[in-house]
Amino acid sequence: MTIPGLNIMELVDAYMDNFFDHQYFLNLHDGTIVLLNDAFEDDDELHNEIEANFGVTYLRIPQIESGLAYRDMQDFSYRVSSTLLQFKLQQALSGPRPFRRFKDVLLDFPQERDQWFQFEYERNLERVREWLRDENITIDEP
Hints:
Elements: E1 2-3, H1 8-16, E2 22-27, E3 33-37, H2 44-52, E4 58-61, H3 66-79, H4 83-94, H5 98-106, H6 110-134, E5 138-139
Parallel strand pairs: 1-5
Antiparallel strand pairs: 2-3, 2-4
Helix pairs in contact: 1-6, 3-4, 3-6, 4-5
């Protein structure tokens, strides 16, 4: 099945948002991505529409598991050329709140921070493409 109008970057963004109140759904007919936020009770109409058309019109977009995200940070920390940054990143990953601390360390290294975002995006882009293949969905990418 080909979904016209599906924006792969938006799909990756939805996949990467693992906030516990957020659920994303892909409209199989027009490629739109819908956010269902459990924190807002005024989404009842949208919730009912998704539930009534689940599997026909809407497909739930998976969210990245924290273990995969953590592994990506570890992999990236081994790839940086600076031994100082490598040490700081690995130290951040071994303490409490590793996700926050990892990103805080990168604030002092803007070039590597940009490299991290590119690395993270490419990893998740491949995961989203694999999910699409598993669902027999093709998209028109430029």
